[in-house]
Design brief:
It is built from 25 helices and 30 strands. By secondary structure, it is an alpha/beta fold. It is globular.
């Protein structure tokens, strides 16, 4: 039997025999299906599935509220006690009620940062927020880890964050009209195989081939050759990590000094160019940001920089920066510098020209917008109306009451007594895992919903087994995709797993807020409600969607797009007087008076080269001479399904692969397949060495997402990159993660190699 279903990495059919998932089949509408779907059967029946509700032994035996250094110190170390669902739910409800009564709602953090699983209704973050809002409120997280700094910074400069969230100028427009595409941070094809909420048709590889056929030159500016799309035959410009801002300023200096900048565009569409021009030309600080200056920082020859600037000015050019560039110390600056560069070229709003962020960071970001949006789950407001920046969770837990600044405002961190986490995996996506682990000991109680024994589940007090998408019904849809998919339940729940909605419904009943949470609907009624409400909301001349039953049986419906080509900021360019941007000037703010008013030294009021706290030009590089690049993995999505057969394709010596340039490997006595230790002052991990010319000398590539597996000395024996990454906000404005700003060292591991136990369930004991 084939059952239609959906995931972040594509639509597929679940192959079911005798009630068991035995395989998957890609959807026929997908020209380039992701092989990540092949990992699903093994993930569903993984030995790491959580079989029933579990409670940490120390928490159950000694009671709650023991305080710092007491009860929480056993998290991640003590065994678990299996309990019944009724007892587990009573314990959870009792703790929520106690913390609310003794400390108030601002002592409860509702955590769900991360991708969770696909599906509109069973989205874990949405359900967690809804439940805790019905309960009376909670401390939420604002922004995200993917492009959090950009979300806060870009509205000051462009009036919105569309240039990072999409839609961007479409691939079709670039293929037809551009002659040069310059990708700062590359556009790695593996990233375009995934999209939050799902993607039915994977088309980016086809567009890369179309660019090549059309004669569009593609330049990959990255320390990693593989970041360039092979299908487009990209030219590689190796660059020192975290120096893209300097390169862009060098390009701008060349344009201005050669009188190749578009003065008319800058005067009509931009505000503040003269002030930033004075900085670039060295009039304000005596340091011209010319190609020679940029060459000394970036490692790219001055003649190459000057040549690239001339190529950009002489033809229709699109410039892009990956999401990863803003996940760094002062991560706002490369984005502002790219906007400055594109403004000097004067092609913003023209077909195939201009700029956009994230062309290679996710699927669907560069396609024409939909004629109307897909269905969506209702959002319930949080009565507490309090949130901290997403990437500042550790700071919050470690420093209750401490003041911080964020996007022009001041606030203090609350004292969190209870963390409720469902969906996402902070022990994957948060920086400096050892620091997080220390902070994670401080709350009285941590409650986690999870299908698998991730590190987050292992570091919880109460663990409630959650279903996977294949064990429930849902609707798959994403705002960048033109398909809506019926995600039909393929198999019965494994073990004692329950859906997040089912868990929260039972808790709401115990806590007296069931009617507010469920609205009297079960899963089936909610799916119909979401779909029917969407149909009623549509006001369009297009053919209306079919009724729910027709959609459900068909398995998929397609939504229309507005047109084939889309050009970002075309309306603004055509009529800047009547299509003003939502900035104070109504124009592109190359100098921001508003940001100047914040007085942030770590985010000046125009694009500026600010030396990162760690980079290959710093004094620290003498101690830690390698820059760590920890991008997304090729064979999984973040940390999802790491224990499966597809993720194993990227492992070396049974742990995460560490890519090193052969010249560096020779100097360190490292051979292909060796187990190596990567380390700095924050932590260390083991990985398997792979030698490749695709990374520049002085750079190591260790993909993120390996399940955290510390030994007794806190060395992650499996290769989790975040034991190494730097944990400080990008700036006081964006407060995004700075994980890309990380220096390390590497050595061959000569001691006995410890086993990887990340996928072995923790020890269980029966309650005495």
């Amino acid at each position: 039997m084939l059952v239609p279903h959906h995931s972040h990495f594509g639509a597929f059919y679940a192959e079911v025999q005798d009630g068991r998932l035995v395989g998957v089949k890609p959807h026929e509408r997908d020209p380039d299906p992701s092989r990540l779907i092949e990992a699903l059967p093994a993930a569903v029946y993984s030995p790491a599935r959580i079989a029933q509700p579990m409670v940490r032994e120390g928490w159950l035996a000694r009671g709650r509220g023991a305080g710092v250094g007491g009860l929480g110190a056993g998290r991640g170390r003590e065994p678990f006690v299996p309990v019944s669902w009724d007892r587990a739910l009573d314990l959870v409800a009792g703790e929520l009620a106690r913390v609310k009564r003794e400390h108030g709602h601002d002592a409860i953090m509702g955590g769900s940062q991360g991708w969770g699983s696909a599906g509109l209704f069973h989205d874990a973050r949405a359900q967690t927020r809804r439940f805790l809002s019905c309960f009376g409120g909670f401390v939420d997280q604002d922004s995200n880890y993917s492009f959090g700094a950009a979300l806060k910074f870009l509205p000051h400069v462009l009036g919105s964050a569309q240039s990072v969230t999409g839609p961007l100028t479409s691939w079709s427009s670039i293929a037809r009209h551009a002659r040069l595409l310059v990708l700062f941070g590359g556009a790695n094809p593996k990233n375009t195989q995934v999209a939050k909420g799902g993607r039915v048709e994977h088309t980016v590889d086809g567009w890369m081939r179309a660019l090549k056929r059309a004669g569009v030159e593609v330049v990959n500016v990255s320390p990693v050759h593989d970041d360039g799309p092979d299908a487009a035959s990209a030219q590689w410009l190796p660059i020192r990590p975290n120096t893209d801002t300097a390169l862009m300023l060098g390009l701008v200096h060349t344009l201005v000094s050669s009188k190749l900048h578009d003065e008319a565009f800058l005067a009509r569409y931009c505000a503040g160019f003269e002030r930033v021009r004075a900085y670039v030309m060295g009039e304000t600080d005596g340091e011209p940001k010319d190609a020679q200056w940029a060459a000394g920082i970036t490692g790219i020859a001055a003649d190459t920089i000057r040549s690239l600037a001339h190529r950009m000015a002489q033809t229709r050019t699109m410039v892009s920066a990956s999401w990863s560039l803003q996940r760094a110390d002062h991560g706002e600056q490369p984005y502002w510098a790219l906007i400055l560069l594109a403004s000097c070229l004067g092609q913003i709003g023209l077909p195939g020209g201009g700029f956009g962020f994230g062309y290679g960071s996710a699927a669907g970001i560069a396609e024409s917008p939909l004629a109307y949006g897909p269905p969506a789950m209702e959002v319930m407001s949080n009565p507490l109306n309090r949130a901290i920046p997403a990437a500042r969770i550790t700071d919050c837990l470690l420093n209750p009451g401490a003041a911080y600044e964020y996007n022009g405002k001041s606030a203090t961190f609350p004292e969190i007594r209870l963390v409720y986490w469902a969906g996402g995996n902070p022990f994957h996506h948060h920086q400096d895992t050892n620091r997080l682990r220390a902070a994670w000991q401080r709350p009285d109680t941590i409650i986690v919903h999870e299908p698998w024994w991730t590190a987050t589940a292992r570091h919880a007090d109460i663990v409630l087994p959650a279903t996977t998408t294949l064990e429930r019904n849902d609707i798959g849809a994403a705002h960048r995709d033109c398909f809506v998919v019926s995600m039909q339940q393929a198999i019965a729940p494994v073990g004692q797993a329950r859906s997040d909605y089912g868990i929260f419904s039972d808790l709401a009943q115990r806590l007296g807020c069931a009617e507010a949470y469920t609205a009297g609907r079960d899963e089936s009624a909610w799916l119909r409600h979401i779909y029917d409400r969407w149909c009623e909301r549509l006001r369009t001349n297009e053919t209306p969607p079919p009724d729910f039953d027709t959609f459900w049986s068909a398995g998929l419906i397609e939504l229309p797009r507005r047109g084939e080509d889309y050009v970002f900021l075309s309306e603004f360019r055509a009529d800047p007087a009547n299509r003003k941007l939502a900035t104070p000037s109504g124009k592109i703010e190359l100098y921001s008076e508003r940001i100047a008013g914040f007085g942030y030294a770590d985010c000046p009021p125009h694009a500026t080269w600010l030396e990162p706290i760690e980079w290959l030009g710093s004094a620290q590089s003498k101690t830690y001479p390698f820059h760590l690049v920890s991008g997304q993995p090729r064979y999984r999505l973040h940390s999802q399904m790491d224990g499966g057969p597809v993720s194993a394709l990227g492992k070396v010596a049974g742990r995460e692969a560490v890519a090193i340039n052969p010249a560096d490997a020779v100097r360190r006595g490292i051979k292909e397949g060796d187990v190596v230790r990567v380390f700095n002052a924050r932590g260390s991990c083991l990985g398997g060495a792979t030698l490749t010319e695709s990374v520049t000398p002085g750079v190591l590539r260790l993909s993120c997402g390996a399940w955290y597996d510390p030994d007794d000395q806190a060395v992650c024996v499996h290769g989790n990159a975040n034991v190494l990454t730097y944990d400080r906000g990008t700036s006081r404005l964006g407060q995004g993660p700075s994980s890309a700003t990380t220096l390390v060292d590497i050595e061959r591991w000569t001691a006995p190699v410890p086993p990887v136990r990340a996928f072995v369930p923790p020890r269980m004991v029966e309650q005495v």
